[in-house]
Design a protein that fits this description.
single chain; about 220 residues; alpha/beta; seven-stranded mixed sheet; about 20% strand; globular
Length: about 220
C-alpha cells in the first residue's frame, strides 16, 4: 500500500527531511503517457500504464536509498539527464523525492502484463549481464539492483554504475517508445521486517511552501 506523500523535485539538489523512512520515485517516457497528479503515485502509475502508451516498459527496483543519495550530481548522471528534460527524446517525467511506503513494482509488472500483453524479462543487475532480443512485441523488463550498504563510502559510485547499466539497457532496446518506472525503498525497510511507525519532524515554513510533485509534460507536436 502506498501512503500519502510529501514531495519535492528529487534531483534538484534541494531537500527537506519530512520523514526518516522515505525514498524517491522517478518515471520518464518517450511516449508521452499523459502523466497527471493523483492522490498517490501508485494510482497515477496504474491509471496511465493501463493505457499502454509504450512498446517497452522498464520497471527498476533500487533498495536501500534515500533522496539525499541522488542529490550528488555525480551519483546518477544518466537518470538526471532523463528526468531533468536534458534528453529531448523524453516527453514526460515525474519525480517524487519522499514517498512514504513503497511503490509496488510487482503490481506494476502485473498490470502491464495483463493490460498490454507484454512479455516479461527479469534482469538481475548483480550478475552484470543481460540479453535483449529484437522481438518488436510489447515487453516489460524488470531490473533488480542490489541494495546499497548503509555505511558504504561507495554509495555514489554504486548508483552511478547502476545508472550506466540501465542506460545500456535503453541503448539496446529495439524500439524508441519506452517508459521507465524507477522505484526505490529506504535502507530502513531492509534493516528490519518489523513494522515501524515513521518518525516525523517539524518542517520549516519555507520547505513546506516549496514542496511539490515534480511533473513535466511536453505538449508540443513531435
Amino acid at each position: 500500500m502506498l501512503f500519502p506523500v510529501v514531495t519535492t523535485l528529487a534531483l534538484s539538489g534541494t531537500f527537506g527531511h519530512a520523514f526518516t523512512d522515505t525514498s524517491p520515485f522517478f518515471m520518464f517516457s518517450t511516449s508521452d503517457p499523459q502523466i497527471a497528479s493523483a492522490s498517490t503515485v501508485q494510482d497515477t502509475i496504474t491509471s496511465q500504464l493501463s493505457k499502454c502508451p509504450s512498446d517497452t516498459y522498464i520497471v527498476v527496483t533500487q533498495p536501500g536509498v534515500h533522496a539525499e543519495d541522488y542529490s550528488d550530481r555525480y551519483a546518477a548522471p544518466h537518470l538526471r539527464r532523463k528526468v531533468s528534460g536534458e534528453d529531448k527524446r523524453i516527453r514526460s517525467t515525474m519525480s517524487v523525492s519522499d514517498v512514504l511506503g513503497q511503490v509496488n513494482a510487482e503490481e506494476i509488472v502485473g498490470i502491464v502484463e495483463e493490460k498490454c500483453g507484454a512479455a516479461l524479462l527479469r534482469i538481475d543487475a548483480s550478475t552484470g549481464s543481460f540479453t535483449i532480443g529484437d522481438d518488436p512485441k510489447p515487453r516489460i523488463i524488470n531490473v533488480d539492483f542490489p541494495a546499497l550498504t548503509y555505511a558504504s563510502k561507495e554509495r555514489v559510485s554504486k548508483l552511478k554504475e547502476n545508472g550506466v547499466f540501465l542506460s545500456s539497457i535503453l541503448d539496446l532496446l529495439p524500439t524508441s517508445k519506452y517508459t521507465v518506472i524507477y522505484t526505490t525503498s529506504p535502507y530502513t525497510a531492509h534493516k528490519s521486517t518489523e513494522h515501524v511507525e515513521p518518525e516525523m519532524y517539524e518542517m520549516d515554513s519555507s520547505f513546506s511552501s516549496q514542496s511539490h510533485l515534480g511533473i513535466k509534460r511536453d505538449f508540443s507536436v513531435h
